[in-house]
Amino acid sequence: MTRTVVGQPIGQFWGYKVIGRFDKAEDFYYHDANGQLRQVAIPEGNTISSTSTWIGDYIFEDKNGDGKINAEDCDFIGNPEPKFTWGFGNNFSYKGFDLNIMFSGAYGNKALNLTRMTIGDPRSKGNIMRSSLNVAQIGVIDPNLPDTDFRNLRVINGGSTTMPAIQESDANSNYTRVSDLFVEDASYIRLQNISLGYTLPHKWLQNIFLDNVRVYFSAQNVYTWTKYKGLDPEIGAMYGDALKTGVDKGRYPSPRIYTFGLNVSF
């Protein structure tokens, strides 16, 4: 899931790279440099079968070129550390009114959205994401030929190219293998805090023995601009472990907080 190597940034995401999907029978084979027909690498121990690796399954990168997909094919798939973080704030005042605004953000950081591995699985018996309904659908090429022969099957829907088909089993580990499909851009801009107040004029307070009265309203975590598909791009470190920074496995999002207040000085 994460790995630290000397000379590399700490706690980078470690997993498989998805390079395609088996949409048709021809995708299982390729011609090597010598023109020889070879089978595309599939998970070690698997065969081309409806209960193993089948039409609609992911194609993983065979990093070491040994013709099989296993732990030796894992690689760095994302860095949770941002290129920079920033904050910007300002105060405005006019005739007793005051407005305070604070923005914060990060750029260039990635997040490993493990939550999506669960709620993105259309086989789940619980709640799932709407996008998970757009799975690859398999159809026969010739209805007069058997639908148990992968050479007579192909992906027929023109929807998402990143969702696999629902199989008899997940022997290809489409939903359980940590891959770059679950690594997302977690850069964000957040309106962290906004506060609006009004201080009553002193002449209004002279007869009631008060020095100062200010009423205000403030809000925290008002709005976040981000491409991240999870609940909150500001993930932090899972279990407080610096080696698991940016790993989102059901992290509770930062709550939006509203406050009304009254400051009185005698």
What does this structure look like?
This protein has 266 residues and is mainly β. The chain has 2 domains: 2-78 and 124-169, no CATH class; 84-112 and 184-265, no CATH class. The protein has one helix at 114-119, and strands at 2-3, 12-15, 18-21, 29-31, 37-39, 42-43, 58-60, 68-69, 75-78, 84-94, 97-107, 110-113, 138-140, 153-155, 183-185, 188-199, 212-226, 247-248, 257-265. It has a 5-stranded antiparallel β-sheet, with no helix packed on it. It has a 3-stranded antiparallel β-sheet with strand order 1-2-9, with no helix packed on it. The model has no long low-confidence stretch (mean pLDDT 92).
Backbone structural class? mainly beta
Number of strands: 19
Can you give the mean pLDDT?
92
Supply the number of helical segments. Answer: 1
- Percent of sequence in beta strands: 35-45%
Spans where pLDDT lies below 50 across 5 or more residues: none
Radius of gyration, in Å, reads 27 Å
Query: How many structural domains does the protein architecture include?
Result: 2
- The end-to-end distance, rounded to whole angstroms, is 59 Å
Kindly state the percentage of residues in helix: under 10%
Summarize the biggest pleated sheet: 5 strands, antiparallel
> Which outline best applies?
elongated
Order of helices and strands: EEEEEEEEEEEEHEEEEEEE
Q: State the strand order across the main sheet.
A: 10-11-16-17-19
